[in-house]
């Protein structure tokens, strides 16, 4: 593994910031993910984000069939402490998580308080292939008019996310990644709506 804990993390950080400040922008972390630890059981891009986000000052949890093993690995690499989902600063929902784990993570994630809205959770979820297809409409800060994306996740996630973000400034942020090492960020202020598909008579 030739991952550079300084330069690769800095490049990844800039891409995360770009995608967070411009919701709908799909960033490519292939160069960084190519150096991921082979022991990691999730997508390589998730491993990069874990090294970027976790340290001794934050807590995390993992939803995965390999949770004990992967938790130990991240603890050894970052010294971040594992905790229960409802207390975690970062919740990782991997592709092999049990059915329903994503909804439970979203519903149980902490949203902070009015006095300290930043004491909330960020949910990192592994998705099907991300694309700019006209499936979901994104509006809000950082988007000039509206942006369109396709995010293949378990049904019900939009409603669960909207409910958690109903009382701004409290809420949760999401980072969505796929097997192609693509990253899409959904800040709590981003409004998401499903687009109606119009069928034209021929």
From TrEMBL:
Keyword annotations of the record: Transferase
Keyword Kinase on entry: no
The keyword Transferase belongs to this UniProt entry's keyword annotation: yes
Enzyme class: transferase
Gene Ontology MF term list: alpha-D-ribose 1-methylphosphonate 5-triphosphate synthase activity
InterPro entries per record: PhnH-like_sp, Phosphonate_metab_PhnH
Entry EC no(s): 2.7.8.37
A Pfam family recorded for this sequence: PhnH
Position of the signal peptide: none
Name under which the protein is recorded: Alpha-D-ribose 1-methylphosphonate 5-triphosphate synthase subunit PhnH
Organism name: Paenibacillus favisporus
């Amino acid at each position: 593994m030739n991952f550079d804990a300084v330069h690769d993390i800095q490049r990844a950080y800039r891409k995360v910031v770009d995608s967070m400040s411009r919701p709908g922008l799909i960033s490519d972390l292939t160069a960084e993910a190519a150096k991921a630890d082979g022991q990691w059981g999730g997508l390589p891009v998730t491993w990069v984000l874990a090294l970027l986000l976790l340290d001794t000052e934050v807590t995390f949890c993992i939803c995965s069939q390999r949770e004990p093993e992967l938790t130990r690995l991240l603890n050894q690499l970052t010294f971040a402490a594992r905790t229960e989902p409802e207390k975690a600063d970062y919740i990782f929902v991997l592709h092999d998580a049990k059915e329903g784990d994503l909804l439970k993570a979203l519903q149980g994630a902490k949203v902070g308080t009015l006095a300290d809205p930043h004491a909330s959770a960020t949910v990192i979820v592994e998705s099907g292939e991300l694309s700019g297809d006209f499936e979901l409409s994104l509006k809000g800060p950082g988007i000039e008019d509206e942006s369109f994306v396709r995010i293949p996740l378990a049904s019900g996630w939009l409603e669960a996310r909207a409910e958690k973000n109903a009382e701004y400034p409290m809420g949760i942020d999401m980072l969505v990644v796929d097997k192609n090492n693509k990253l899409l960020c959904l800040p709590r202020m981003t409004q998401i709506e499903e687009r109606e598909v119009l069928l034209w008579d021929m």
